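tl;dr need the bound structure. longer version: we got a ligand (pyridoxal-5'-phosphate) that a collaborator sent over and nobodys looked at where it sits. i said id run it. heres the input, straight from their email, havent touched it
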Amino acid sequence: MKLAAPASPLDQWALGRNVRHLNHGSFGGCPRDVIDAANAWRARLESAPMKFFVLDWQRELDAARAALAGFLRAPSERMSFVPNATTGVAIALASSTIGAGDEIVTTDHAYRACKNQLARLAEARGATIRFAKLPLPFDADAAALAITKEITPRTRLALLDHITSPTALVLPLERIVPAFAAQDIPVIVDGAHGPGQLALDVGALLKLGVTWYAGNNHKWLCAPKSSGFIVAAASASGPRPVVTSHGASPEYGPSNRFHAELDWMGSHDPSPNLAVPTAIATLAGMGNGWAHVIARNHALAVELQGRLTAGLGAKTVLAQDTSLGTMAAVPITLPPNTKPLELEMRLLEEGWEIPIVDFPQGPLVRISAHLYNHADEADALAAKLRDCGVTGR
Ligand SMILES: Cc1ncc(COP(=O)(O)O)c(C=O)c1O
């Protein structure tokens, strides 16, 4: 596999020329064709807003939803667009029946905003949270054990990342979810990074026992920002969207009540969602099909991890290839009296988009691989970090 050059040249992307984009994971990045498609939707809407929303919007949304559902192998009748994964997780949590004295299982790698939402839910309902400690270096079997051993007779909910945010680890859901499902414990999967990093089969995950899957289109599918989705198993309680809208009235909205509750959460710009089919097709065209996009980006992430580890002299490899998608985190030591955010901000000022993660067990640099990235970027990043006084750990 050719990793020495971008699979898709940067001039096909809206990304700037003078910036090193090594962080697709946080905020994505868009091909120009996708931006053009979203702009065309917005122009059509703005030319006759009422006509668009009253006559066209639901039909166009349903078409975009069907394309996304086909790509994710998800049931479109139980799927809605949401602005982002954070909102999707909030809806899943709001829909849960968790109550006083109940326990919720999550991990110490859970995304901060979702952990915060979980903490508020637990406080409001009188529940407690048990944090499974994931082993580092990562071991998929040990991780599955660490999570499932937090199940007690009081466990009523689990929130699990598909791919962890600070550490870029793919959790082995197939070894974890059945243990919860066997006891009818609902599982919310925060799949912010799943679509486009992994060959997702959401239908299979629902069969495994996942109750809610929340994901993003604006990360690895390269849709414009403000496009995510949520899928619920038939067994899911609710939905109780965080914004109650017209669809809560039984006489209003589409006949599918899941769609009626979730599709219209107030006036919004639907162009990012409507551009999702273009994003899926554009990336497939750029990368020789999605299977190849994912395989190439995974191979590149592994290569970037290896070169950065060597270039910084890091002694610990956080995860083996089989536990990586298309990102990787490398443990680092910062120069004395430097905080991770300070280094991250300095790098941003100097044209490097790369997260320096403030992880409790020590700082990490997290690298992403998408079609515009290539292997030599790891050497350049290692040199830059060394110049900043960073060493591997
Ligand atoms: C695991 C995880 N969950 C949720 C999010 C939030 O995504 P968004 O800001 O699109 O809601 C992220 C973002 O990086 C993430 O890594």
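gonna send this back to them w/ a short note. The longest helix spans residues 49-72.
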